[in-house]
Amino acid sequence: LKAIKVGIAPYDTTFAYGSAWTTAYVQGELERIDPARNRVVNRWKLPMATGAIGAFGAVWGAGSNGVIRVDAESHKLLATIPVAGGAGWTAASADAVWVTTPTGLARIDPTTNAVAATIPLPGAPYLGDPDVVDGQVWVPEIRKNSIAVVDPASNAVTETLRSGVGPFVVTTIHGEAWVPSWKGKDIWRYR
After folding, report:
1. DSSP codes, the chain
2. Which of 82, 92, 115, 125 is the most exposed place for a label (fewest CB within 10 A)?
């Protein structure tokens, strides 16, 4: 057991490319933790840092100015990608990085480091941490008690699923979606 000091208000943590990565919301940083040394070894400015995900040989951090992309090997900042209204939580599909926004979901093309599409969601701006389930992007709509399912082929919502009270995080486990009710007392399992 080891408590590792990070920036104020860590929001998201992921393990990718041999390191742990976290966002420090108040500090306004994406941080890389060396697990062998149990300490933060790199920091990148990211105002209101929220989501982080490893994909396409990089770690992507989302914050109020948009998204930053950090190379997983060199740990150099590769790109700063503006997102209208700012970016929140993150997910990655086979060919895109997805971030929640105040109006819905933004699709980022990792080959151009630019927003390729925006998808309005009725539950915005109250969206939780999405994940990719069977090739579809599942986005929790916290105040609507539902999950918006986005098809990457059409960049459109194809289904809205009922959930528990205040769904906040979608987690894929063995091809199934697990969604805890942040404001309730249950976890919803979708097969």
Report:
1. ------SSSEEEEEEETTEEEEEETTTTEEEEEETTTTEEEEEEE-TT---EEEETTEEEEEETTEEEEEETTT--EEEEEE-TT----EEE-SS-EEEE-SSEEEEEETTTTEEEEEEE-TTTTSB-B-EEETTEEEEEEGGGTEEEEEETTTTEEEEEEE-SSSB-B-EEETTEEEEEBTTSS-EEEE-
2. 82
